[in-house]
């Protein structure tokens, strides 16, 4: 359905474009083949990555250990894997995307 979303085998895989230093953390629509996330954390000492993973864990109501950064540690483009069984529609609802 969405090029940035893959729900299969009990996991949700997201391709993200992250914009750190925003006023608030929120999903901000699509950015190319990625979902854009505005992040209210500075891109310093891994704080943005930690804030992103914590925000996703909170949105999906899973433990932080169930959210893993697969790639993009030092990049705005990140791939995240969440241990969570859901449909595409449920993921869109949880992320606040219409």
From TrEMBL:
InterPro entries: DUF167, YggU-like_sf
Pfam families: DUF167 (PF02594)
Superkingdom to which the source organism belongs: Bacteria
NCBIfam families assigned to the protein according to its UniProt record, in alphabetical order: DUF167 family protein
PANTHER family xrefs: UPF0235 PROTEIN C15ORF40
Family, as annotated: Belongs to the UPF0235 family.
Protein name in UniProt: UPF0235 protein ACFO0R_15215
Organism the protein comes from: Chromobacterium aquaticum
């Amino acid at each position: 359905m969405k090029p940035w979303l893959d729900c299969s085998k009990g996991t949700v895989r997201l391709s993200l474009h992250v914009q750190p230093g925003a006023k608030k953390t929120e999903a901000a629509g699509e950015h190319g083949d990625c979902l854009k996330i505005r992040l209210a954390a500075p891109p310093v000492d891994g704080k943005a990555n930690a804030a992103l993973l914590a925000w996703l864990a909170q949105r999906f109501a899973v433990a932080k250990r169930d959210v893993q950064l697969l790639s993009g540690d030092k990049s705005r483009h990140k791939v995240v894997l969440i241990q969570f069984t859901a449909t595409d529609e449920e993921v869109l609802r949880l992320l606040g995307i219409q």
